[in-house]
Sequence to fold (163 residues):
Amino acid sequence: MGDLMRYSGIIRNDLAAAPGVSVSFFTQGCPHRCKGCHNPETWDFEKGKEFTPKVLDEIISALNANGIERNFCVMGGEPLCPENEFLTLLVIKTVKEKCPNVKIYIWTGYYYEELTKRSSSHIRQILDMADFLIDGPYVEAERDVTLSMRGSSNQSIIELKKI
Fold:
């Protein structure tokens, strides 16, 4: 993998990800490669766009646009794999500093229990700062379009501030 941090894209006014209006940030690269994945273009760690400080400015600007209260959603790819955890931490730390009231949602193919067993200080800081974690891999056999914020019934929405 190159030395550049990479991301897949940003949706400035996302109405589908979380309740209300969100800014959604997509990391690039995913080790899970779930069958039936919604974003297979985000799997390759070498693809996507170079992450620069300008991208952080764009995220903060989008979160503050037109006085609308927005959530911040981090998706992938896989935002919490070892290759992306530093970028995910950098982005959510900046969001919390500049927009302290923004609710942060993170989607991951890992289960919460797996993440808490990792020795990474980045993961611990991310889980401390985020508000909601949508965990678990997408399982095509458990696909359920009626679920809020999830694609399959094995996934959970965890309110991190209540743990």
